[in-house]
Amino acid sequence: MDTLFGEALPSGTLALLLVSLAVAFGFEFVNGFHDTANAVATVIYTKSLRPWTAVVWSGICNFCGVFFGGIAVAMGIVYLLPVELLISKSAGAGLAMTLALLLGAIIWNLGTWYFGLPASSSHTLIGAIVGVGLANSMLPGHSLGGGVNWGKVSETGLSLLLSPLIGFSLAAILVLLSKRLISDKRLYEKPDERNPPPLWIRAILVLTCTGVSFAHGSNDGQKGIGLVMLILTGVVPASFALDMAADSQRIETARAALARIDSVMARLAPAEADALRAAVTRVRGVLDGRATLNDIPREQRKNARADIIKLDAAVKKALKAESAVFSVAEADALRKDAATLKTLTDFAPLWVKVAIAVSLGIGTMVGWKRIVVTIGEKIGKDHLTYGQGASAELVAMSSIGMASYLGLPVSTTHVLSSGVAGTMVAKGSGLQPATVIKIASAWVLTLPAAIFLSGGLFLLFNWLFV
């Protein structure tokens, strides 16, 4: 354990850390069987793959998506939280935050899974994060809603709002286009119950299942990585507050970025300049004279992380100020310099990626059937055809993959479910109103339910741990 966590921990701290990590891996496990059913529904209902073959293959692809997908989405999720909580010096506050948002998200995900409703794990997690932020703002000495990163919340919310509309529209358009361009009638008929689809159709459906599964891992899996890093930086800051693997070249690059930020402060109004100057001074005090981050005393590393996060916030605030006089190129350069410094705090060790990838991959292989039945049988009035399955998954694969590249969290559930609905409308078969109402209700209730659950849990845990 000492090697894994970088230091010997008291038995009580170690027990809390292991419980917190188990809850985080549990969330990703639930995410696997809750959301990945969307990826395998089309290949199962078009007889392209046998159910267990599809589920195991999807689990492997999810694993690869987490492992190779980077951490942009992970950090996007983390920075939805109030800066105050991200830099809290209290391990108890950090523990209350992470356990509350994780348990709130798990409770809602399990409830919607039990009733076979393809609700969004992304919406659930973001609602849980907002709930923690709102609950924190209700504590003494805070203003209600003041600590929530509403700018990041609105940006993330917009991506979640637009993704199902895009899924519905593009999948419907693809079905209509394929009818004009591809004359093979088998593409638009109910699959033969006794035989698999033609080889070329089967290849397309397996390819899209692979793509959706990989994209899901690269997007949703990263959210789990971000949550695990929140736990580690809160409980074991000496080992995980900073990327201790950063070499001397990265430290030198960070110093150069810091110097460039320092050089533009004279062009800011006094208020913005003073805030930025103070942040630059603190970070410079941390980096100057250090060959590597290991040279920073262990007890100072959490403060160093907080100073870099505050510097990034100060740069963003300065760029938004009315007094800012930077050109587009200069503003972009400042953002890049701040991002360079953030590479010292935004990272994930290999074992974290592997653990999340395994949790998501195994979760994919468990409990998938409830959601698959809803996607395959209950959204439309007719059986899902080859053309509909391929269209819905092509759209999901491409849009989720693009979102992961841009660092935006989107909902696999919303994109694919909406895509299937779009293909049913385009085909003219219509939708089943009862199912659509249930799914829509789950979508509408997810954010407020997650906010309420995680907010209540945070206030409870804050009372217990802080």
Can you describe what's shown?
The structure is a single chain. With 466 residues, this protein is mainly alpha-helical. The protein folds into 2 domains: 24-235 and 355-465, no CATH class; 242-342. 74% of the residues lie in helices and 0% in strands. The protein contains 20 helices and no strands. Helix 9 (150-181) packs antiparallel against helix 18 and helix 12 (248-263) runs antiparallel to helix 13. The longest helix is centred in the middle third of the chain and has 37 residues, at 199-235. It is globular. The model has no long low-confidence stretch (mean pLDDT 80).
Write the layout of secondary structure elements.
Layout: H1 2-5, H2 11-35, H3 37-45, H4 51-68, H5 72-78, H6 83-86, H7 91-114, H8 121-137, H9 150-181, H10 199-235, H11 237-240, H12 248-263, H13 270-287, H14 301-320, H15 328-342, H16 350-364, H17 369-378, H18 386-406, H19 412-427, H20 433-465
Helix pairs in contact: 2-7, 2-10, 2-16, 3-4, 3-10, 3-17, 3-18, 4-10, 4-16, 5-10, 7-8, 7-10, 7-20, 8-9, 8-20, 9-18, 9-19, 10-16, 10-18, 12-13, 12-15, 13-14, 14-15, 18-19
